[in-house]
Structure formats: structure tokens, C-alpha cells
Write a structure and sequence with these properties.
Strand order of the largest sheet: 1-12-3-4
Order of helices and strands: HEHHEEEEEHHEEHEEEEE
Largest sheet: 4 strands, antiparallel
Number of strands: 13
Structural class: alpha+beta
Strand content: 15-25%
Bound molecules: zinc ion
Length: 241
């Protein structure tokens, strides 16, 4: 059965969910606003010392601070659906970037870098590939800048026999599978991704607009409705002196 993208989105709206384009898991933090957003701005501008090119890219983007965002990953395992709740540190849609206002400065810089990588990716790149690319580029950068890893346990990094630290492609791919609900094979082309369930018998919705019967290991992410208290970071302040 063929279902158009618009119909998928209508179905998702009907159940109060939207598909998240770029979330990733968060370690900890509390919500806030006002002075928190000042701190966020100050932290971003610390990049002027080392990464003026990254700050320069922000003038073509709309940057918003928000409360930590809750996401849900559904996994079909052992013949039933289970739900895992996680948090997203940042998101990107086209040229709009959201950052959680509670992130410690080191993590905030990594998150910003990750989201800016997304804004440079070609729209035709498949979403799982976008995440693998953004995690890999960002991890490389955080290693170089001696900033915290994007993974709480440093698992996104590995040390080569010559002592060099590099991003771990295996750990990053694994995270994109488990943290996002993407189907990423070890090799070969990406299969159509599951983006939701349907009321059709045993059905899942795929991102190519089709449906099929559910399979063991199927997984997808949804974002429940929530108040994020989004505040625009004044664009005129996002520049190096
Ligand atoms: Zn991402």
C-alpha cells in the first residue's frame, strides 16, 4: 500500500507525535531561562578563540534555546513494542537550530558543532547517514579541542595502536541504531526506515511512503508534545568581536 509523505505526517499529527530530525541523548541537567540563555550565548562566543568559522556560520541560522527535550524510541522486540525514554540535546530543521539551555558549556559547544554540521549536509543525504556523519565530524573536533565526548562514557572514541585518539565508527553507528531507532546495516545500502505504526494489521509506516508488516527489531523515534520554552538567541549578538 502506498501512502504519501503528507499522509504519514497527518497520521503522526493525529496521534500527537512528530518525527524528530536530529535529537541525541542527553546526560543530565535542569531547565531554566533568562540568565541561562545569557550563559549559553557567552559559552558559544568562547568559540571565537578557536573556531571563528563556526561562529561565522551562525549568522545564516536561527538559533533557539529550549528546555531539555524528551524523546521516545519504540522498539519491537520479542513480539511486542517497548518504549525507551531519552532526551535530545539539540535539534536542527533546515536552518533553525535548537540547543538545550541547561547544557554544561563543553557539551553545549559539541552540541552546537554537531547541529551546524547538519546545516551543511546535502538535503538528499539519508537521515541515518546524516547522524553518523555529524557524530563522526563532531567527535573528531571535540578530540582536537579537548572537549567532552558526545558519549557520556567516552565510547565514541578509540585509541589506535600508535596512540592517536579517533572517533569509533562502530560505537557511533550503534548509537544511531539504538538512540534514534534507525535501521543501519553494517554494510550495503540503507533500507527504508520505520517512522511509525499504523492501525493497519500489524503495520509499520516506512519513510518511502509504504507500509509493511512489523518485524523483530523494528524501531522508530517520536517526540511527545511538551513545553520547551523556546527563546531566540539574538542573532546580532552571535558574532566575534
Ligand atoms: Zn544530529
Amino acid at each position: 500500500m502506498q501512502i504519501r509523505q503528507a499522509q504519514i505526517e497527518a497520521l503522526q499529527r493525529a496521534v500527537g507525535r512528530i518525527i524528530e530530525r536530529c535529537p541525541y541523548e542527553q546526560v543530565s541537567g535542569d531547565s531554566g531561562s533568562g540568565s541561562e540563555d545569557e550563559r549559553l550565548l557567552k559559552c558559544i562566543l568562547e568559540l571565537c578563540k578557536t573556531d571563528r568559522d563556526v561562529v561565522a556560520k551562525l549568522k545564516r541560522l536561527k538559533l533557539l534555546a529550549r528546555n531539555p527535550k524528551r524523546v521516545e524510541v519504540y522498539l519491537f522486540e520479542g513480539g511486542e513494542w517497548t518504549k525507551k525514554v531519552g532526551k535530545s540535546k539539540g535539534s536542527t530543521r533546515d536552518t533553525t537550530v535548537w540547543l538545550n539551555r541547561d547544557l554544561p558549556c563543553g557539551e553545549l559547544k559539541g552540541t552546537l558543532y554537531h547541529e551546524v554540521v547538519h546545516t551543511d549536509q546535502p538535503p538528499s543525504m539519508p537521515r541515518p547517514q546524516k547522524e553518523i556523519d555529524a557524530y563522526t565530524q563532531t567527535e573528531q573536533w571535540t578530540i582536537k579541542r579537548k572537549l567532552p565526548s558526545q558519549s557520556a562514557d567516552n565510547s565514541f572514541r578509540e585509541t589506535l595502536p600508535d596512540g592517536t585518539t579517533v572517533p569509533s565508527s562502530r560505537a557511533i553507528k550503534d548509537h544511531v541504531r539504538r538512540g534514534y531507532g534507525f535501521n543501519v546495516p553494517d554494510s550495503g545500502p540503507l533500507p527504508p526506515q520505520v517512522v511509525g505504526r499504523t492501525d493497519l494489521p500489524g503495520g509499520v509506516l516506512l519513510d518511502d511512503g509504504t507500509t509493511r508488516a512489523v518485524r523483530e527489531g523494528d524501531s522508530f523515534m517520536v517526540v511527545p508534545k511538551q513545553e520547551l520554552n523556546e527563546q531566540l538567541i539574538p542573532p546580532e549578538k552571535l558574532k566575534c568581536s
